[in-house]
Amino acid sequence: MLKEKMLAALNEQINAEQYSALLYLSMSANLNDMGLPGFANWMYVQYQEELSHANKFYNYVVERGGKVQLKAIEQVPTKWEGVIDIYKATLEHEQKVTDLINSLVDVAIEERDHATQSFLRWFVDEQVEEEANVTEILDTLKLINGQGNGIFMLDREMRSRTFVDTTAAQ
Ligand code: FEO
């Protein structure tokens, strides 16, 4: 059985992951609008990943006999200056998510909830990968200054990303 504080924190995280999903869907729409279908695809896959994260938390709470409580999702931004701005915002957002995951681990340690600590390990590792991937794209975007032939080539590369549900692996 999940303790009250742990359950509340996990429910908050379901909301945070759902917010992340909508944030990336909004970014995907903007990237399409900017004439960058490859980047829009990459961001759409990011949206699908975030939904799978929310569902992973949802299923864990249910599995532990906790009551899922869905709350209203905060309005996401709807406009950005350009593709560099979008990836800067993505990196900042993922850094915030990393903080949230670390805080969840802190609660699990406080509550001596070893099962939740073990469950959260997947997310700790996932955040390392998320931050590294976005940093790499952002660095490349800065190098080509987000324009010219470079952006055209990079956009083509971004088309190949497909959604693979890795959350079931645990
Ligand atoms: Fe669900 Fe991008 O962290």
Q: What is the structure about, briefly put?
A:
It is an enzyme of class 1 (oxidoreductase). It is found in: Cytoplasm. The protein is an all-alpha fold and 170 residues long.
Write up what this structure looks like:
It is found in: Cytoplasm. Fe cation binds at residues 17, 50, 53, 94, 127. This is Ferritin. Keywords: Cytoplasm, Iron, Iron storage, Metal-binding, Oxidoreductase. This protein has helices at residues 4-33, 37-63, 83-110, 114-143, 148-158. The protein is elongated. The chain is built from five helices and no strands. The protein is mostly helical. The model has no long low-confidence stretch (mean pLDDT 96). It has one domain: Ferritin, core subunit, four-helix bundle (Ferritin, Up-down Bundle), CATH 1.20.1260. Residues 17, 20, 50, 53, 94, 97, 130 line the site of MU-OXO-diiron. MU-OXO-diiron binds next to helix 1, helix 2 and helix 3.
